[in-house]
Amino acid sequence: MRSYRTSQWVWRACWLVAGLLAVGFLAVFFAAPAIHLIVKGFIDEEGHPTLAVMAQTFQSSRTWRIIRFTLGQASLGTLLCLVLGLFGAHLLYRVSWPGRTLVRALVSVPFVLPTVVVGVAFRTLLASNGRLGFLGLDGSWQAITAALVFFNYSVVVRTVGSTWAQLDPRRADAARALGAGPLRVWRTVTLPALAPAIASAASVVFLFCASAFGIVQVLGGTQYSTLETEIYTQTVEFLDLPTASSLAVVQLAVTGLCLFLSGRAQRRLQRSLGSASPGPLRFRGRRDGLPVVVTALVVVVLLLAPVLTLVERSFQRDGVWSMANYRALMSPGDGSGMVISVWQTLINSLTTAVWATLLAVGLGAVVALLLSRRPTGRWGRAGLSIGDAAFMLPLGVSAVTVGFGFLITLDRPPLDLRTSPVLVPIAQAMVAIPLVTRVLLPPLRGIDPRQQEAAAALGAPPWRVLGTIDLPVLARGLGLAIGFAFSTSLGEFGATSFLSRPDRMTLPVAIGRLISRPGAENYGMAMAASVLLAGMTVVVMGIAERLRPPEVTSW
Fold first, then answer.
1. For every residue of 8-47, which 3-state class applies, written as one string?
2. Alpha helices in 273-301 (DSSP H)
3. I need a labelling partner for 292 at 20 to 30 A (CA). Which of 66, 121, 334, 357 fits?
4. Segment 106-131 mean pLDDT
5. Residue 555's pLDDT is what?
């Protein structure tokens, strides 16, 4: 009996240590920079509390123009994603037809592409010599919006489509049998059932549009700025940290609101879902004609055209087919301002991604195991709910804000990491940990607690219950978690733009540097590097998706 109690105390101590380790990492590398960032916006240069900095920032017409553009383009991008995505969700998840799985995978590719690659692809497509150059949209706000829709279209399709696939079609059939027309059936039956999923998707898409950095940085240039790009500009170019901090406070408020609304919608969605539907509907010819036309146009014009144009132009130099752009990656390039070759930045990206993935998956697995516990006490359940929300918070904070927070916080003892090579992997891991947790947690929460109780009743110690029940389930989602973490790190641009050193530059930062410099050689190298980065990301996520267990879903 005494040995049993001792083992229980040891086991609880192990969970406590694991929890303190995870909470400590969150506190040091997320909470402290975020709090420091907020406080920085309310103190003057001498360190005295004041509202003058915040007031001065918001008295500027430029600040309000940036806020209006950020919210306006995010709203427009979200609206277009919803309108186009609903047609895609119906066709790809509600209707059964040959080739549906292949098109689903194709639609999901843009979301895993690095944002800087998306920006380069659209700039190549819409340039004066591009396939759609005759539209005159190069450097316009319409180009930014189109790129945001390209990036976030699959979020709506997968979020709404997975819910639509579970709706029982007999409710709509009954409404039609009672004389309701197609529009009335959609308005009174289907739309209310999909409302929580639509709200959840809209919140996430608005968050991604409002916090887009690489796309706006590449396509907007100096003419269009969002809160993300302005924080970067005020910090790197003007060295105005108080103004950047004030703007970061606004960005935190916007992203926090989006994350709150998304969480509420997700809870409503979980409560509203009932039993699964009898299965997808058969293709119904003309009745499904409009979704077919809209989705085909989206796939061909919006999704395939930018990527295929980027690949095509990367193999051309001065209008001639050539491998010159790829051979040039072995050197820094003329006038690029880089001190290392682009090929070396690729090696730096892979090395950084490995370390960031190890850190993100390791801590994400610990967090997922902690959050999957089922405490019986009220305080335990409350603590678990708070912990769940706290570890999801980094998902709602932009990478630029994370990088800026690191820059102004981790610059003095005992954590002066400005010159340390570990700073970039830590920042990238902080961005990836919520994604890893979202992948690993649902299967763990799906474990029947009676299995664990039966094993304990048969005399299995707690560590054996964990090893024989929890860890095998955790391992089933590990491949997808590794894929998300690695691809997130590989394409991370916002935080790394603040933190990477010239001699340790990563590939996305190098692409951003090349695309901002004049010269055909620099632009050709940027296109070739973007193709390599996109190819590696797609391969990584393709392998991860093949390892994905059926019950794990992602955006």
1. HHHHHHHHHHHHHHHHHHHHHHHHHHHHHHHHHCCECCCC
2. 289-297
3. 121
4. 87
5. 44
